[in-house]
Each structure stands twice: as structure tokens, then as C-alpha cells.
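Q: Now give one record:
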Amino acid sequence: QVQLIESGGGLVEPGGSLRLSCVASGRTFNDYPMAWFRQAPGKEREYVAATFRGTFYTDSVKDRFTISRDDDRNMVFLQMNSLKPEDTAVYYCAASTNWFILDSFYFRKDSYSAWGQGTQVTVDS
């Protein structure tokens, strides 16, 4: 059984930082795409960042968030700096067992076969 477990969420003031972690079990995702998505109340789950032989970000978090991975520990991280209230959401870790033909597939929810339960990030004074 493949499992992804996120941690590191919490309440932070605007301008603050959080580091999210995700550990996978059941199989290794070495050299496969991994990503972070988020879902705010009343909105669709949206792409945040991905990593596969490089790193990729949605425009709204570019230069503020950094995705990284430790394949020896089967983990992926999201360092979030300069947080804004609009970053408030449940953040989900995702992983794929496929290599994508088109770059656009990195941004799609249905590209990923394994998902974590999510961790709440709240940015507020």
C-alpha cells in the first residue's frame, strides 16, 4: 500500500515561513515526478510546485517557495517564505509512477497516482 504523509503545517503570520515535509512509503519514487498541490475553501485543488530532474512552480509562488527532494529518504519538501494570506490552504503531497510526455502534465491533478492526506497552512495575523 502506497502512502504519502505530510507534516509541517500550522499557523503563521504574513511574511513568515513554514517548511512542509512529505514522506512516502510502499514504493520508491526515485526519478519520478513529485509535486505539491493546495486547496483553499470553496476552490479547486491547484498545482503549486513539482520536481523531476528540475523544479517548477506556479507563478503565484515563484521566488517565494522552493521544492526539494531527498530520494535516499523517499521525501519531498516545500520551503515557503514570505507567506501571504492567500497562501492559506490545505497542502497535499503527490507522486507519480509515470514519466510525462508533455510538460503540461506536471500541472494536472490526474497526472499523480498517490496523494497524502494534507496538512493545513493558515497565514493570518
Q: What stands out?
A: The chain has a mean pLDDT of 96. The chain is about 0% helix and 45% strand.
